[in-house]
Amino acid sequence: MGLSTHVLDTMHGCPAAGMQVELYAMQGDTAALVKRLTLNDDGRSADGPLLRDGELNNGIFRLVFDVAAYFQARGVALPEPNFLNRVTLDFGVADASRHYHVPLLVSPWAYSTYRGS
């Protein structure tokens, strides 16, 4: 059923519109770029799922969220170096016939994620 993500900016209480995200397929320690995108006004991919039915396979994937650049673009004064620069989430897909939703709740100093529906 595919793979999707959604990012919420918990500092400002809104979707993380404009955040850059990269999706990689992992083979051991090697990461192969699958997709690079900019989140829309709702903090989601404007093109719908990152991977649709039939495109998602069992395996390990990596999502990379460019957190520091997003908050800098919002005018947030960040220390140098930033506490969070890029948030990297490695996750496994054990049953590609099911939908995998990977949300991120993020501020300049903290983040959380979970497997959503």
Map the helices and strands.
Elements: E1 3-9, E2 14-15, E3 20-27, E4 30-38, E5 59-65, H1 67-73, E6 87-93, E7 100-106, E8 111-113
Parallel strand pairs: 1-7
Antiparallel strand pairs: 1-2, 3-4, 3-5, 5-6, 7-8
Strand % is 35-45%
By secondary-structure content and strand pairing, the structural class works out as: mainly beta
Q: Summarize model confidence as the mean pLDDT.
A: 97
The main sheet orders its strands as 2-1-7-8
CATH class membership: Mainly Beta
In helices, the fraction of residues equals under 10%
Which superfamily, in CATH terms, is the homologous superfamily?
Transthyretin/hydroxyisourate hydrolase domain
Distance between the termini: 11 Å
**Largest sheet, strands/sense/barrel:** 4 strands, mixed
CATH architecture: Sandwich
Number of helical segments? 1
Computed CA radius of gyration, to the nearest angstrom: 14 Å
Find the CATH topology. Answer: Immunoglobulin-like
Low-confidence stretches: none
Beta strands, count: 8
